[in-house]
Please model this.
Amino acid sequence: MAGKSASGKAPLESGAPALRLLGLSKRFGNFAAVERLDLTVRKGDVYGFLGPNGSGKSTTIRMILGLIRPSAGEVRIFDRPSTVPGARENVAGFVEAPGFYEYLSGWNNLRMLAAADGRSRDVASLLRWALEIVGLAGRANDRVGAYSQGMKQRLAIASALIRQPELLILDEPTNGLDPAGMRDVRDLIRRLSAEGLTIFLSSHLLAEVEQLCNRVAVISRGRLIVEGDLREVVEHARGRLEYHLVTGDPARARQLLESRTDAMILDGSSEGIESFAPQDVLRISPGEGGAGPVVKVLVEEGVEVLALVPVHPGLEETFLRLTED
Amino acid sequence: MLFWELFKLSRQRRTYLGLGAAALVPIIFVAAIEITHQGPEAGDAPFAAQLFSNGLVIPLITLAFGSFVMLPAIVVLVAGDTVAGEASAGTLKTILSRSIGRTRFFLVKVAAVALYTLAVLVVFAGVGLLAGWLVVGLKPLAGPDGTPIPVGEGIALIWACAGVLALPLLALAAVVVFLSAATHNSTASVVGGIVFVLLLRLVSGLGLTGFLDPYLITNQFDAWLNLLRQPVDWPPVVRAIWVSVLWMVGFFLGAWGIFVRRDILG
Model:
């Protein structure tokens, strides 16, 4: 990172987590947007913050960035309470669709934000460096009003980078981008991580988080559902995938599964699968061993297996299932 | 940061709407009296009898008309946008995620609005004076009791009048900045500010305000006319100054209190 050693920031205590949320809560009237959220982002993590839209991700990020006041709990940044003046000096990021002065050029937007950071030296070279990284150098003098959604998204990343942060907070950074733009931003996140930045990345896309993150937290309706290493969390969730099972004898299949496997028969009607009547389709969750034991038991007992189709539920459903125990 | 705040103002259309109106109205007024040779009757406006013979009268008469609705409206137009415009454009969250403190950013915004208010007045009185000089010509003003007022003193008097008018306008700006910080809605703040002015004038005009009447902000807009008497009638001028300052400080502090605490959701 250009000029990082000259940035004059206090050295950070090594080993301290980059970000901790402790019992963080936000209520709007009677509505609990975020409830007793605890999570820890270690230094160097690319931390995926997953949840469906409306789950409280943006509210959490607003509290991290100091835009809204928690109703209870604490945000700690590099082991300092965020309420200490200057605690957010090493943090940069944005929340939801980035807001810029549309009537100013990208360059002037960044210059003004640098001024708001109190930076007066080497601003031009810093800006050029950041614009180069996000690939906007050629369009810096155009008005932001003429930028595409993807360009604004990249300008937002540039505006965060000129703070030369240790912790980068990105709220759905690939939102509104075309596939090539998404790939560019993901490559950029990998590069920044390789340079030692800690990145807190919110997303509602499981695939995106799988590609980029080493740790992940899932929230739903303002509550933490699970936090841990990516692999653990994803496999935990996958073990509870739903299957649609069609057999020659649904009643006997149900009885066998209930007595001989740890699969769960899910209630509620299925939308069915092509060419089978809905009443012949069993919705099952196969449990720890996956679908293998289910098929084995049915085949051994002579029940004809006509179809076993994994259902890929949306992220929300997959992770909500984690809360059922 | 003040530089950037002014730079932003300089790139917005509504800024020029206000400044342009402030420049245009005196020009239109001068053009109209030149063409029609009709103007306000003596008694309707300060020094109306000398309107066609002395350019010094032009800015005084335009100030008298401007201070009624136009200047307050121009101030409301820009002040209403201070916080609300940034909130609705999503730029407030961008700026407040940076190192600048909320108090400092608020002070910068308020300073820009104050400078804008003063600029509107300077343009309004300055263009009036310039137009009066170019079209009618300047000469010593015949004071109310017949004593002539030299041109230099006349010009100083015009700026003193504009200065006394600046205070209630700044107080009005503070009221509207308060609305802007409280509602985060530009239109509501602008409309609210104008309704506020009209409502105060209405209840005052209907005689409903009783002993509070001399302390209404809207009743300070013409206090500067007392500077034109001979001798100067100081008590209403002095009252306008402290009443305006009280309104200004009160709403400024209120707006600041809201601004530093309020959740930024936009």
